[in-house]
Every structure is written in C-alpha cells, then in structure tokens.
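I hope you will forgive my troubling you with a question about protein structure. The record follows directly beneath this note:
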Amino acid sequence: MMRMRWNHESILFLIILAIALAGLFGGTKLPLTARFTIGSGAAPVIYAACVLVISAVLIIKALRNKEPEKLIPLTGKKGLIFVLLCILFAILANFLGFVISLFIFSVPALVYAEGWQFKKALPFALIWTLVVYWFFVKILSVPLLPGIFFSS
C-alpha cells in the first residue's frame, strides 16, 4: 500500500479546500438568481467552486509527489503561516477592529512569512496601518470595522 506524504503544502491546500467549502456553503444561502439577472449568491458560488477544483487538484498533486527534493517545505510553511495569520486577522477584526487587527497581523506576517527582522517589521507595520487608515477613512470616507470592544 502506498503511503501518502503530508507536507506543509498539502496542509495549506486542505485549509484552502475548507475555505472553499465554507464559501460554497455560505453562497448557497444567498439567492442564485434574481429578476432578469444573477443573484447575489452566484459570484461566491462560482469563485468557491473554482477554488474547490483547483485546491483538490493541488492536494492530489502534492500527495502523489514521491520525490522529497521537489517539495518546497519552506514555501509551504510560509504559506501555511500566512493563511493561519489571515484567519486570525479575520477573527480579531470582529473583536479589536480593523486597524488594531491589521497591525497585529502585519508584524508576524512580515517576520515569519517574509523573514523580516522584528526591528524592521514593527515600524513598517505601524506606518502601513496608518496609511491604510488614512486612505480608507480620510480619502475614501469608508468606515472601518471598529470591533466589538470599541463600538459605541
């Protein structure tokens, strides 16, 4: 019996597969058709179905790879860390708000996923957060998610 190889890439593709299934499930809760046009659920279902097919192909390809030197564990590990940070960002944004969560997300994303030094990542994340806040709130007048703890 052939033993399948689980590596960082296949775990990352499984997470993407789970996100696609969640998008497919959530998209089917919205109307797929409307009068004379497509409904609001059509785009999420189409995107989720495409991501579902692509991630399934990538999982099969990663699991069937027999040569360890062709696997890219560092890239897979960085991608896995980045996906986990994105999930953490989405969860924290509801509680702490978009701005604080963006800063909290940016520092480890730069340090762990991109390999920056902490001393360099901290000021960049702060400047990046302020620029995003300024652009969306001041220039575009788009309110950012305040979070449960900071909403009035």
Notes: Residues 1-70 form one domain.
